[in-house]
Amino acid sequence: MKKKEFINLEKARANCFNIFTALFCQPQKEIIKANKIYDSLLSSIELISPKCIDYILDLKKQKSKINIEKLLIEYSRLFIGPFGMIAPPYSSMYFGQKNNLMSDETLWVINFYNDMGLEFDTKIKDAPDHIAIELEFIYYMIYKEISELENNKIKNAKHYWINQVSFYNNHFKKWTIEFSNKIENGTTFEFYKILAICFKQFLTDDKITAFPVSTKIKTTIAL
After folding, report:
1. Distance between CA atoms of 68 and 64, rounded to whole angstroms?
2. What's the number of domains the chain is made of?
3. What is the pLDDT of residues 154-187, one digit of tens each?
4. pLDDT, tens digit, for every residue of 14-34?
5. Are 199 and 176 a contacting pair, CB within 8 Å?
6. Which of 15, 29, 104, 176 to pair with 170, CA 20 to 30 A apart?
7. Beta carbons within 10 angstroms of residue 123's beta carbon
């Protein structure tokens, strides 16, 4: 794949991760009810997972029917509690000793953030392995990769690409399918059911494209 085509595809992927981040955060009326967020997702996802198009159109139809207060209640029931989470949004609860928040997996995620030059903001009132935070981190790595590649900084770009592959394939994809299944099976709220099915389809179809530059470059993979 040529460099320009690769960049366009990565920009589409970055936009998808950015929008999924917003949709998996606590619902905000100005986001959930906005046409532009679904239109933007449609324009990007058709390059990666055409099967998602109908799901996104369904989400767009659902937005006009949604009562934000009821959506907030369902969000809390699925992802917060208080009587146990239906679909825990934390990666640590899908590895090793399940139902264990802030495990070794969480520390692995924090170390990965640090190796990419980021520090977790302790002011954020949530764990660093929350679905929305991990989605935003993937978006960040793709964004940095594109920026470096457009500036012809090949070594830096490939560094971000390799680490994106590592985080995405060795960690993120290993828990988010099960997470999506828990939402799909645990809710009767159409918005979240459709979102879960769409996200799962996206994860199934999304394949990170080979880096377009054949130059052999030494780079460090975060472990």
Report:
1. 10
2. 1
3. 999 999 999 999 999 999 999 999 999 999 999 9
4. 999 999 999 999 999 999 999
5. yes
6. 15
7. 5
